[in-house]
Structure formats: structure tokens, C-alpha cells
């Protein structure tokens, strides 16, 4: 038998390629998928826009040039101006902050709440499962945007409330996803093995079940960000989300609908921004699914 | 006489069958139905039987991974069926399991080091450096290398994974290891290596094994005594050699004759069983084996044969021997 102490030093110099974990494995798979990388780049582009908005957008979001109302795209205003003479490009750049903020935080919120409910339902089963699952069923029985409108109507129209509404309507999707994943994982032999070792339930949940049920959640989460951005824009369009003068993309669409014929750029560019972001997240999500979800590498 | 490390008395595990909207119980699958046996310290008890006879359920009920419906399991003189969840966790230090599927029994997201560290952490070894040393030591003991510790399960072959599973079971210095079909998922060439490893470990650490398998050849190789199970009951239990030379129960005879013999000129004298194993949800009356038994008598359909000592150390549950042999002894 070799001396164990000697091997500790040897270990530090192990080739990193041999110790590639499942997450890194997925990243290598993802990088091979060109379309997914394009999606990732689009998303990254908008994230950078959002972060560096004050440096990129030379005009403030509310800087009004009353003389320059509804101007078409030009060298001075790349994407034209709106009915108040505000630079559309600047507003779109700041709008990226709002949309991404809403998308990410709404989804993170619903992932956290959905995961907790889903894990409890899946792991403990019985009547707890019945109550939680039926509750999800009831929520899913309503069209999601209708439910969101109802929630905002109760809470009052504002961007923050729209975010909460979007988070709430997405909870059952994640809850059910995690629940089904937990149901299959808890029958796996390594869970039995962990119990056999004498591990406590709570430790099994967090150290075995949760990490192994994360892959589909990440995939679904990425796709859900796209939906959340769309839903936020829809609520904004209906006047239930962001309030003027905030440069929310859906709100920009709503404000410019009267000028569709005379100044189409006021509508086209915010619309394009929504489309591109959603497309980016969807492409990225599909790529992630291919890389992580079908089956763990064995 | 060595002491009995584990004593099982009247163990039953019934799974309720639920039907309808409100989950009314309409019956039960009697997976393990009144099983009693003991295991002596340092020996290997093999449990054999065909799929669905309840051998794995027995193994899991012993450590309460499945809660037994009835019966008593005494480990080291203590009745562990009455233990609280917390006491039970402490006992698990001494009873470890090795599982059948080496692909499913290791968490794919953990490195080998993390997998092996878990039992140590759970049972209170707080010093990380000591843990590391112990992990490396045991990796070497089971025939792997210390540098394997940083790898993930998918980077190993089936045989290597089973070695990791065995190392995990050894981490807490257990007294008893319940091996649930530890080699059935492996290639035949690898089976022998793993079996030999288990035998070496038994000598080195003075382990007691309960070895569950469906392959009599494998069980004979490793076991001191063998219990044969059929439909949730033990039908015969005796020394490994005695069982092979003098099988008493007709089911054991059929099992033995099904073991292939590596000799082309060997006289085929096979006892071929007809039909399938009956459903454990609705077992036959009397002796559970009577539907397939070549020596069926009237009494077999009515009375359940008891597991009796037919010869010293040789227990069988069969009406063929009751009333005749039992009187002689």
C-alpha cells in the first residue's frame, strides 16, 4: 500500500482535463452548438448595454428636444426620435436595464419559491404533495397573462408589481418541474445509499437531490426569462407595468402606436429590441437543453 | 461458539396495494413474509432466490431503509426495529450496504473524494486532513489509486465504481456489510475480481457479510452458509457445502440443477420447473411452492410447512421431510 501522505501532494498537480465535472462538461457541449453561442452573444450584448447604459447612451432618457419631434433615423439620432423629441436609441438602451432586470429577478423569484414547494411536494409526498400539486393545477388553469393582469389589478399598476405578478404566475411551472425531477431522483440508488450511510433528510435534500435537479431548471429558467420579458412588455403595453416616463420597451410600443403610419421607427425599434432579446434567450435555452438536459453523461 | 451478530425474528414486509380516488388499501404484496435467521460474527451468509422473491427487500428491511411491517431485528444484542431515527443513524455506522448498480449508487455530480467523505462527515470526523488521508488509504485498499479521488463517477468502469461503492461502505469501519447483488451488474471477469476483493477485505477487517444474489455459483464461492428464498420465505438454510451436496427442498434442487457445469459430457439431469413464480400479492395456500413442485402432496396445498432443523445445522421448510425425518432426529 502506498503512503497516503505522499499522494496528497501528488494530487495538487492532477491534470485538470481529467477532473472535468458535469457542469464543465455541459459548458463544452454548449460551446460546440453555434446557434446557441449566437443566442448567448445576443444576451451578452444586451447585458453589456444595460450595464454600461449611462456611458453608451449619450442623451438621457428624458432629454426632450421639442424641435426634433418624430424625426426619422439620421446621423444625429440613429434610431430617430419619438413624439416628445427623445432619442429612441438612448431609451432602448436604458430599456434593456428594465427588461433584463424584470426578466432575471422575476425568474429567480419563481425558481426559488417553485423549488422549495416542488422539493417539499416531491420528497415528502402524500397529502403535502396533493395540496401543493392541486394548488399548482389551479394556477395553471388560468391563462397566465390574465392571471398577471388580475394580480397587478389587485396590487396596483407599477413596474415592481408587474415583476411580482410575473414571478407568481411562473411558480407552478418550476414547482412542477422540480417536483417531477425530485420524484425520479429520490428513487435513485445513491439516495438510498446516502440514507444507508445515516445522512439526515435535510442534508440529502441539499447535497444530493437539489444539485441533481438543477439542470432542467436552468434550461427552463433561461427560456422563462424570455417569456417574462414578453409578459413585462405586454403589461407595460396595457399600462399595467412600467409607468411613464420610464423607457420600458412595452410602454414605448404603447406610446408610439398612434404614429405607426407617420413615424414607424418609433414602434419598429423597441419591437426589434424585444424580439432580439427574446430570441437570444430562446436560442441560448435550446442550446443549454441540448447540453445539459437529455441525459447526464455516463 | 461465535456469537450471533445479527438475529432476525419473524421479519415481514408487506407493501399495501392502493386503489381508487382515496387510496383505499385493497391488499398487500407480501414481499417478505415471516423470515427468521441469524448471522454469526465473521461469517458470510448468502441469500439466493429468483427475481422478486424478496431477497433485496429483506436486505433493505434489515437496516430499515424499508420500514419492516413486523418482526424483530437484533444487531449486537439490541433490537434496532424499535430505535428512534437518531439512534438508527448511529447504528448505521456499523451496518453498511453495497448496492447492485454501480452506475446508480454514486452521485454523478460528486467527486469520488466527496462521495467517500460523506460517511465520515455524517459520523463526526471533523478533521478534513484526516478524512483525506483515510480516503486515500481506502482507495488504495480497494485497488484504486489516490489520484482517482478528484475524478467523477462517469470516468470509471463498472468494476471500478463497485470498488468505490465498497470503499464507501468501509469508511466507517462497519461490522456488518449487506451486499445487495454487488456483482450482478458486472462482467464475469470483473465479478471474480470484486468477489476476491470482498473476501480479502473480510479477512483484513474481520467483516461479516450478508451477500444477496441470484447466482448460486457466485454465492457458493463467497458464502459460509446459504439461505434460499422463495416468494418471501426462506425455504432452506444451511452450510454452503451441505446445500450443494444434499439439497433437501425441491426448489433448491431445481436451482442447483440450473447452474451450468463446464463439462460438455456432463449428463443433463436437470429438474426443470414449470410455470412462473406466483404473485406475492396473492400467494398460493399452504406451501407457496406447491404450484410448481414435482413432489406435490395433498398436505402441501393446505398446511404451510415450517422451517425445521431436518439434520443438525440443516433447516428446510418442506412437507416431504416432516413426519418422517423429523421424528428420527
Overall 3D form of chain A? elongated
What is the helix/strand order of chain A?
HHHHHHHHHHHHH
Secondary-structure element string of chain B: EEEHEEHEHHHEHEHEEHHEEH
Estimate percent helicity of chain A: over 70%
GO molecular function (chain B): ATP binding; ATP hydrolysis activity
Keywords (chain B): ATP-binding, Nucleotide-binding, Transport
Organism (chain B): Virgibacillus profundi
Protein name (chain B): Dipeptide/oligopeptide/nickel ABC transporter ATP-binding protein
Structural notes for this entry:
The complex is a heterodimer of chains A (298) and B (329). Chain A is an all-alpha fold and 298 residues long. Chain A has a single domain, classed as MetI-like fold. Chain A contains 13 helices and no strands. In chain A, helix 5 crosses helix 11 (214-237). Chain A is elongated, with a radius of gyration of 24 Å. Chain B is an alpha/beta fold and 329 residues long. Chain B has a single domain (4-94, 172-328), classed as P-loop containing nucleotide triphosphate hydrolases (Rossmann fold), CATH 3.40.50.300. Chain B is built from 10 helices and 12 strands. In chain B, helix 6 (188-205) links the parallel strand 7 (176-180) and strand 8. The radius of gyration of chain B is 21 Å and the shape is globular. Classes of the chains: A mainly alpha (298), B alpha/beta (329). Chain A binds chain B through residues 1-2, 4-5, 7-8, 10-11, 14, 18-22, 188-190, 192-200, 203, 207-208, 211-212, 296-298, and chain B through 60, 63, 65, 88-90, 92-93, 96-97, 99-101, 103-109, 111, 118-119, 122-123, 132-134, 136-137, 140-141, 145-147, 149-152, 154-155, 165, 168, 172. Chain A: Residues 96-285 form the ABC transmembrane type-1 domain. Chain A: Belongs to the binding-protein-dependent transport system permease family. OppBC subfamily. Chain A: This is Peptide ABC transporter permease.
Amino acid at each position: 500500500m502506498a503512503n497516503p501522505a505522499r499522494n496528497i501532494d501528488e494530487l495538487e498537480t492532477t491534470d485538470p482535463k481529467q477532473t472535468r465535472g458535469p457542469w464543465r462538461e455541459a459548458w463544452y457541449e454548449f460551446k460546440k452548438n453555434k446557434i446557441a453561442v449566437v443566442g448567448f452573444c445576443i444576451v451578452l450584448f444586451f447585458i453589456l448595454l444595460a450595464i454600461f447604459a449611462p456611458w453608451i447612451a449619450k442623451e438621457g432618457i428624458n432629454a426632450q428636444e421639442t424641435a426634433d419631434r418624430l424625426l426619422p433615423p439620421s446621423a444625429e439620432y440613429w434610431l430617430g426620435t419619438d413624439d416628445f423629441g427623445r432619442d429612441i436609441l438612448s431609451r432602448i438602451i436604458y430599456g434593456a436595464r428594465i427588461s433584463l432586470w424584470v426578466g432575471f429577478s422575476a425568474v429567480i423569484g419563481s425558481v426559488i419559491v417553485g423549488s422549495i414547494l416542488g422539493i417539499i411536494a416531491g420528497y415528502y409526498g402524500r397529502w403535502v404533495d396533493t395540496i401543493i400539486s392541486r394548488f399548482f393545477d389551479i394556477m395553471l388553469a388560468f391563462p397566465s397573462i390574465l392571471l398577471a393582469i388580475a394580480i397587478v389589478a389587485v396590487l396596483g399598476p407599477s413596474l415592481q408589481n408587474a415583476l411580482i405578478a410575473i414571478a407568481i404566475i411562473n411558480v407552478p411551472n418550476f414547482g412542477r418541474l422540480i417536483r417531477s425531477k425530485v420524484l425520479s431522483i429520490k428513487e435513485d440508488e445513491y439516495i438510498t445509499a446516502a440514507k444507508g450511510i445515516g445522512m439526515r433528510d435535510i442534508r440529502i435534500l441539499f447535497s444530493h437531490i437539489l444539485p441533481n435537479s438543477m439542470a432542467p431548471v436552468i434550461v427552463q429558467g433561461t427560456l422563462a426569462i424570455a417569456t417574462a420579458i414578453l409578459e413585462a412588455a405586454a403589461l407595460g403595453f396595457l399600462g399595467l407595468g412600467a409607468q411613464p416616463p420610464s423607457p420600458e420597451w412595452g410602454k414605448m410600443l404603447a406610446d408610439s402606436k398612434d404614429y405607426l403610419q407617420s413615424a414607424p421607427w418609433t414602434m419598429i425599434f423597441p419591437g426589434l429590441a424585444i424580439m432580439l432579446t427574446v430570441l437570444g434567450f430562446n436560442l441560448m435555452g435550446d442550446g443549454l437543453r441540448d447540453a445539459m438536459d437529455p441525459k447526464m453523461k455516463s | 461458539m461465535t456469537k450471533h451478530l445479527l438475529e432476525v425474528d419473524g421479519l415481514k414486509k408487506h407493501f399495501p396495494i392502493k386503489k381508487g380516488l382515496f387510496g383505499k388499501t385493497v391488499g398487500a404484496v407480501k414481499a417478505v413474509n415471516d423470515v427468521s435467521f441469524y448471522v454469526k460474527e465473521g461469517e458470510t451468509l448468502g441469500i439466493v432466490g429468483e427475481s422478486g422473491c424478496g431477497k433485496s427487500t429483506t436486505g433493505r428491511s434489515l437496516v430499515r431503509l424499508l420500514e419492516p411491517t413486523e418482526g424483530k431485528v437484533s444487531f449486537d444484542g439490541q433490537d434496532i426495529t424499535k430505535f428512534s431515527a437518531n439512534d438508527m443513524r448511529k447504528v448505521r455506522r456499523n451496518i453498511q450496504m453495497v448496492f447492485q448498480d454501480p452506475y446508480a449508487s454514486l452521485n454523478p455530480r460528486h467527486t469520488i473524494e466527496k462521495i467517500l467523505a460523506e460517511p465520515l462527515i455524517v459520523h463526526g470526523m471533523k478533521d478534513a486532513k484526516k478524512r483525506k488521508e483515510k480516503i486515500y488509504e481506502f482507495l488504495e485498499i480497494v485497488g484504486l489509486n489516490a489520484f482517482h479521488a478528484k475524478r467523477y463517477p462517469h470516468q470509471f468502469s463498472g468494476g471500478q465504481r463497485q470498488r468505490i461503492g465498497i470503499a464507501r461502505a468501509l469508511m466507517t469501519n462497519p461490522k456488518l456489510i449487506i451486499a445487495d447483488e454487488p456483482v450482478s451488474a458486472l462482467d464475469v471477469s470483473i465479478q471474480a475480481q470484486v468477489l476476491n476483493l470482498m473476501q480479502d477485505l473480510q479477512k483484513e477487517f474481520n467483516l461479516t457479510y450478508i451477500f444477496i444474489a441470484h447466482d448460486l455459483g457466485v454465492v457458493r464461492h463467497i458464502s459460509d452458509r446459504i439461505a434460499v428464498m422463495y416468494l418471501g420465505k426462506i425455504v432452506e438454510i444451511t452450510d454452503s457445502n451441505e446445500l450443494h451436496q444434499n439439497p433437501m427442498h425441491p426448489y433448491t434442487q431445481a436451482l442447483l440443477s440450473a447452474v451450468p457445469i463446464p463439462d460438455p459430457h456432463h449428463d443433463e439431469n436437470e429438474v426443470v420447473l414449470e410455470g412462473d413464480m406466483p404473485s406475492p400479492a396473492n400467494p398460493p395456500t399452504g406451501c407457496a411452492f406447491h404450484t410448481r413442485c414435482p413432489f406435490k402432496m395433498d398436505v402441501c396445498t393446505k398446511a404451510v410447512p415450517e422451517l425445521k432443523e431436518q439434520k443438525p445445522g440443516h433447516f428446510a421448510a418442506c412437507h416431504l421431510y416432516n413426519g418422517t425425518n423429523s421424528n428420527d432426529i
